[in-house]
Specification:
78 residues; 3 strands
Length: 78
């Protein structure tokens, strides 16, 4: 079955883009770092895209201080 040209344009596959973690997933522009939180043990950063007016939270994994604490105290499960 051959699709009509108007539908082929709509459903054309786009190649994946390698966006940096501080680029907006919607428009691809660089976002502003609003907040960086590590007190929970995870390195969480909040970015704001001025063009889309949306905030995105990016999880960078375990915070450095938490990894060092766990290495010094392997018997603690915190």
């Amino acid at each position: 079955m051959d699709w009509p040209a108007s539908l082929r344009r709509l459903f054309r596959r786009k190649p994946p883009t390698d966006l940096a973690l501080d680029q907006c997933p919607q428009c691809g522009r660089e976002m502003e770092l609003v907040e960086r939180t590590t007190f929970t043990g995870d390195d969480m950063r909040t970015y704001f895209c001025a063009r889309c007016a949306r905030e995105y939270v990016v999880d960078f994994g375990m915070a450095t201080w938490q990894a060092l604490h766990n290495a010094r105290h392997p018997d603690n499960k915190s």
